[in-house]
Amino acid sequence: MTLAGSRMGALSFLNKKPDMNGPGKGGGLLGWLDRRYQLTALTEFLRHKEVPLGSHWMGWYYLGGITLFFFIVQVVTGVLLLMYYQPGETTAYESIRFLTTKVPFGWLIRSIHSWSAHLMIISLVLHMFSTMMLKAYRPPRELTWVSGYLLFLLTLGFGFSGYLLPWNKLAYFATTVGTNIVASVPLLGSWLLQVLRGGQDVTINTLYRFFAGHVVILPLAVVGFIGLHIVFIQRQGMAPPLGAKVAPRGMKFFPSFALRDLLLWLACLMVLLALAVFLPYGPGIPGMDWELGQKADPLAPAYPGIKPEWYFLWEYQLLKEFPPHLFGLEGPQVCLLLIALMFGIWGLIPWLDRRVRRDQPSPAFSDFGWAALLFLTYLTLLAWDIGAGAASGAGDELTALRNIARVCAWWTLGAGALVIVVRYLRYEHRWFLLSGAALLQVTLHGLVGLTYLLAGVISVVLAAVWIVVAHFVGSRTDRRSET
Length: 483
Ligand code: HEM
Description:
This protein is mainly α.
């Protein structure tokens, strides 16, 4: 059977008309529902649905479901929190304090909500990178990628808006710093800042806006896009291994895959509960800590060293690496343009990866995924001040920063070398140009001591020259072998 053939008939039960005179399945409630809604067609569809067994590890196929599980936990615990939370200048902080100290198991619900938010982002990022590496975005699944990409952005919005809701000191200053970045958007900056904050500064109006976004706008948008994402997947089936011309061997979705999914959801629930009970305020690492602390006080001076959640740390660090002015623009403006460019490229991957569109292997894009991961790792480690302990004896601040950069560089180089060796030996990959460029930048910045930007420019230029030369040599060799 061809792949197109195997997809035919998917979701055809949606077109079925009610058959009020038909036998239905069974006589009771099920038969009654079946005559109206053609449930047999749905169970038939589920019985025939299969998940392709490819050359890759099946585990990657469960990550989307795990992300969905954590989102459901978010909705359930979020509704429970809403029963006590009251947004307002004199109520937001107080209601969370009351919830965590007086309401039976209130602390546990808050802890589950916070842990599940972090675990959802971890599984979401893993899911996104796994579908990227498996090239599951190739035609006809471009819109599955785009809907997932929008879900990723919306989920980051959840994290950002939820952070302010306890109205404590840390959240207040972190949101002030975070929203300040928006002011650097060229042309629209001050207008966007006004819209986001509901005024010039972070005030209780900002809390009302974030609250509306967190509990109404974002959930509606996420539920809509999850629906779309899943309809796309059901309609087209899961992506078969690259290059498969006939339908590969498959695992029955129901019951084999669904039961495995369920088992994993139970395991995730156990892990989530254990974490929430034993670490109710998070593991205590920067960006993963939800101790309530003191109430927000807009008049108090901001204290130094405020950092965002761990998944925003790379942007925070990148902003720090830019000088105040560059190319006649403000440094943060150039940085935001670069971040927008990177996000734009990521969203358009299904169209940029032209080899995979012809169903050919595209090693450059696998390497691009790894290069992106190394880039994010290095910046996140720097923002975490990994190696600050070793640097504490250093005299001036610059020497301390150099020490941190050196330690972070060694960790990233170690991880990069491991990835390259595994890809080479286990998966026989031979294309390492972009991950090599990412590691070169790490070396030039962390070990040689060049500025982050100069190291980046040198690495990008060298990689670009290499690609152009390789392309030129490749096409000349092709022409010679044709003549
Ligand atoms: C709330 C967020 C998300 C949820 C709940 C979700 C859920 C799912 C589920 C249940 C599947 C089918 C099983 C699987 O492959 O794991 C899936 C597949 C897929 N997802 Fe997501 N997803 C989310 C975000 C994303 C993101 C951020 C991307 C990429 C930018 C993405 C891209 C894809 C692709 C390309 C597939 C098809 C996989 C294939 O055909 O093999 N998803 N998603």
